[in-house]
Amino acid sequence: MYLPDVARLEWSYHQVFHAARHAPLDPRALASVPAERQGELRFQLHPAARLLESPFPILRIWQGNQEDANEASLMDLSEGGVKLLVFRRETLDIEFQPLRDGEFNLLRAFDEGCDFTGACERAMAAQPDFDLPAHFGSHVARGVVTAFELPDDRFST
Prior knowledge:
Helix 4 (101-111) runs antiparallel to helix 5 (116-126). It contains 6 helices and 5 strands, in the order H-H-E-E-H-E-E-H-H-H-E. The protein is globular, with a radius of gyration of 17 Å. It is of the alpha+beta class. The protein has one domain. A 3-stranded antiparallel sheet has the order 2-3-4, with helices on both faces. A two-stranded antiparallel ribbon has the order 1-5.
C-alpha cells in the first residue's frame, strides 16, 4: 500500500520546511584534514534534508494531489519506485530530487553516521559507475552536506 509512503513524503516536506538553518560546509576546513585521515570523516546532512525511498511513485502521487496540480491523470502504481532527496534551500524553496542508487546510498550512509570510506563503499556497491567526486562536490556546493567531524574532534566544523 502506498499511502504510508505518501504520508512520509508529506511529513518530510513539513519537517524540511520548518528545519533550522545551517551554515554551509567550509571547504577550507575540509582541506585542512590530512589526506590519511579523510576516510575517517563523518559528514552531516543539512537539517532541512530528508531521504525517502519507496517502491511506489510517491512523488507523482503527492504532486498530483496538491491544490495547484493540473488535472488529475491516471497513476500506474507499477511504474516503479523512487529514491528522493527532499531539501530546502535558503530561499525556502523546497525541492524534490530523484536520486540514483549510488547517490542515495552515499547520502543515506552519511545520515546514518557512516565514515567517508564506508559511505563511498556503499555508494559504489549500489552503483559501480557512480561518479563520486561529481556527486559529493555537488551536494557540498548546494549545501546538502553541511558539516563534518573526525573521531577525535580536532577538525570538526
